[in-house]
Amino acid sequence: MVLGLHLAFTVKRRVLVIEDDPDGRRLIVEALTERGIDVIAAVDGLHALRTALAVSPSVVVLDLALPEMDGATFVQQWRERYPEARGVPVVVVSGKSDASEIGTRIGARRVFKKPFVVDELVNEVSRVLN
Questions:
Q1: I want to staple 19 with a disulfide (CB 3.0 to 4.6 A). Which of 25, 42, 101, 123 is the partner?
Q2: CATH code of 117's domain
Q3: Number of compact structural domains in the chain
Q4: Is pTM beyond 0.85 here?
Q5: pLDDT tens readout for residues 87-123
């Protein structure tokens, strides 16, 4: 029993950051990494889908306007192919005018409109992980 508890606490929680803008992606990844969070990044929806299926993230931070496959389609495809993903929190970061509506439709935990305060995003991700 003690071994099982120890393993539960040593499993690293991963955040998948999906952002096509290099500066935005770097900002989010660095801020999360500074908090000791294990981060994997993807630059488009197709890359994100392959990555999410391979690594099973604990949280997804997602831009909606992505090349190859938009963010909402990514969430739909991921949840269809990996039913366990339905329980994985999604946090949206987007400059789209309809981001709140799309976020509600895909079941996002929270929507951050660009530009946003990075510390608020990091705090939200930390809350979700804990």
A1: 25
A2: 3.40.50.2300
A3: 1
A4: yes
A5: 999 999 999 999 999 999 999 999 999 999 999 999 9
